[in-house]
Amino acid sequence: MDEAKDTENDRREADSAPPPFRAAVEALRAARLRPQIEIEPAPAPKRLAPYSHALEAAVVDGDQDLADGRLVLLHDPAGHDAWQGTFRLVTLVRAELEPEMAADPLLPEVCWSWLTGALQTRGLTYGEPSGTVTRASSHYFGGLSARPAASQIEIRASWTPREGLGGVPDTAAHLASWCDLLAQVAGLPPAGPGDASVVTLPQRRGPQSR
To answer: What pTM was computed for the model?
Structure first.
């Protein structure tokens, strides 16, 4: 109930925000995405910028979540030196890994290239990218020893979308690129023709359920 209230408060704040931010948020709401991705609004952080809007998404296969993530749109009408702009996109993407993928020493570099490649494939211009790729493993003992070892990849990143007419970035296209990254991490085949050469993580068929 509190989360629903926070989300409604975020919507009211967005409706009273400057026109460029309202336009950017409306573009996010109107974006059409591939059907395997379930997306919904989420409470937005209050301390990162004067205006913010957040989304949560999951790549779903039956009753399993193959990957999940969060995307936050930030806006400071006065501009931000670190951003080199008035808008910023911040993301977190997570997925479980097959053991052979978790052992690949180049996996962090590959995952980062998926993010930049997803933006470039859609012809998007952006600046000041930064982030981390974290690989984690869990091993279970005692009463949990029957569980198989599990590995997870986590991508945290942010970038500045270039602003277009009226100072509004193409947030719908950036959201679509982010969903391309989610799908790729989840191991889904490419959505568009001509992208068959893109490498994805193999789908994990473990016990993870929603």
So the answer is: 0.81
